[in-house]
Amino acid sequence: MPETKKANCLFCSLQCGLGFEIDQGVPVRIEFDAESPLSRGSLCARGHYNQELLLHPRRFLGATINRRRVPWSTATTKIAGRLSEIRSASGPDSVGVVVGTELSNEDYEAAVAFARDVLGTKNIAVAYDGNDYPFLMGGGAGDAEPTDLDDADCFVLIGDVFWGHPCVAKRVIEARHQSRSNAIYTMNPYRTNTDWFADGHITVAPDAEPVALAAILKGMNAQGAPSVPSGKLAEVSDLTQADVASVASSLKEHKKVVVIATSRLGDSTSAYLTAKLARKLAKAAGGKYAPLFRGGNAIGAFGRVGSDVTVPKIMEGVAAGGIKGLLVFGPDVAQLYPGTVSQDDLEKLELLAASAIFENDMTKHGDVGLPQSVWTEYDGTYSASFGQASKIAAVVDPQGDAKPVSAMLEAIAIELAGSLSRTAAAAEHTELEIDVPAALARIGGVGAGIVLVEGTNPLHRWEGTITGRMTFPQRQKPYCELWVGEGTAARLEIESGTSVALSTDRGETRIIATVTDRMPAGLVAVPSYVPDARGLMVWTVNAGTRWYDVSASGASLKAEG
Ligand code: SF4
Fold first, then answer.
1. How far is the CA of 80 from the centre of ligand 1 (A)?
2. Domains in the chain, start-ordered, CATH in brackets?
């Protein structure tokens, strides 16, 4: 008889509940979970990929050395031997450990213990996607719980919350319609799906959310609200002083405000300040703050892997030759941060060992590849937005030789040190030193040329990020498009549904354009999860935030002849 086993979706930090119908050990169907405290039976399009993820024919299922299949123990012995040699010759800090954001809390604890106690290296970092890291540094994990959504009478939604995290939409819209006086305010560089439901939409220039938030905080007379330089608000948003006073008084009048903000690619200082000020806004309104992240367990990673060493720092170490051994558990660093690490740099490493669910540039070009279990193949706990800590019990046995990261680390540790003791310790994060007035003054509007902003399409993420290929969007043309405003399209003679050449200082790609009245003049939204489009962006390290700023210089758009 088929049975139903419950699990959670880790494709974003909402961690919606779902069910798997299991027939003779095989997941045959995804089911909704009406008892899930946050999603209450909702599951977005991405959530349905949980089954495909388990059964995908391109899963990476066998350990490899130089891409040749080997027994699991041969691979871990090779890693342990090479680590010993590197540590003896160059010291413990010559090894770096990078973990992804879809691992369990227990995996993170094992990784920290492995780096600290077995290797003795300080170089451990989390490969956050987008600007999850500065977003977490600014506002933390938030204090809203699922039940706060039931009686909220006002929402401030920063970013395209519904598009990136669709399952929160149902709860927000239900709460909004409980009373005519309830309200939703949105803030975004262009009109998104979230804005369809808004009572008031604040248009800001890309990365200018902190200016609008600071102005509203000032309007509320909130303690410690940063000053906005004169003229800046008009330069970067459509808010007038009267609008600011109206939003500020509305937030004060409503009894239960929930501020929800979502992380995206862009300027990392702006992401940090957006989170900081969004949290402050929730507090000033006597409400709750809920940040939503791209990484399913970004909150768990942040709470356990604490260090001033971030991925940019480790990649600098790889490029400079100080890091000679690199262990990567989960992410395809080359695809996540295009152009930040070169093939030559990776080839200089004396050891590159990588685990992944699908073969990627790390496992392909590494010395050793280890197949990694999906979160629904092993028991683990995970920390979600809205304060839930959920346990996922394995719904199926791991496929092939796939194993959880903690089991990999244990096997390597036993060869190196005899054991791996996992002592959980809360992570420490040193506060960032950001000159807030200078950062607000630096934020500018959209100039005369073309400005690329991230267009978030959840389907791009999972077909693209999991498999490293874009087979689904390439078949489904409408999902792989850029958005351009009507005025800009007319100026450049671009028609909807036609191919355009999009280029930046980093290269050129061809993509289908959709002309829409949602985009303000000069702004072009690109599907950033398409590797080609992502690779057109420039990823530069911001010393202040210790993270990547993602921008595109020299952007231009041409109709294809
Ligand atoms: S909203 Fe996020 S957690 Fe929920 S089903 Fe979609 S991707 Fe998964």
1. 37
2. 3-55 (2.20.25.90), 64-129+298-417 (3.40.50.740), 134-292 (3.40.228.10), 446-559 (2.40.40.20)
Distance CA 510, CA 526 (A): 11
Which string of b and e fits 503-521 if b means at least 16 CB within 10 Å? bbebeebebbbbbbebbbe
Contacts of residue 472, Cβ cutoff 8 Å, sequence gap at least 6: 459, 463, 479
Ligand 1 atom 4: the closest Cα is on which residue?
Answer: 16
In this structure, which residue's CA is closest to atom 5 in ligand 1? 47
Looking at the DSSP bridge assignments, the partners of residue 59 are 358
- pLDDT at position 457 is 58
Residue type at position 211: V
Strand duo 95-99 + 325-329: pairing: parallel
Task: Specify burial of residue 384 (Cβ count, 10 A radius: 0-12, 13-18, 19+).
Answer: buried
**Cα 11 to averaged position of ligand 1 atoms, centre (Å):** 6
Which residue, by CA, sits nearest to atom 6 of ligand 1? 44
Q: In the chain, which stretches have pLDDT less than 70?
A: 456-480, 561
d(CA 30, CA 384): 21
For residue 472, the model assigns a pLDDT of 44
Read off φ and ψ for residue 38, nearest 5 degrees: -100, -50
- The C-alpha atoms of residue 551 and residue 454 are separated, in whole angstroms, by 10
Cα(84) to ligand 1 centroid in Å equals 41
Max alpha carbon distance in the chain (Å)?
70
- Other beta carbons within 10 angstroms of residue 89's beta carbon come to 10
Entry pTM: 0.94
What pLDDT was estimated at residue 1? 81
Residue 259 pLDDT: 98
User: What's the angle, vertex CA 549, arms to CA 294 and CA 340, rounded to 5?
Assistant: 90
Contact 452, 555 (CB under 8 A): yes
Q: Output the CA 166–ligand 1 centroid distance in Å.
A: 7
What are the pocket residues of ligand 1 if the criterion is a CB atom closer than 6 Å to any ligand atom?
9, 11-12, 14-16, 39, 43-44, 46-47, 165-167
For ligand 1, the distance from its centroid to the CA atom of residue 312, given in whole angstroms, is 28
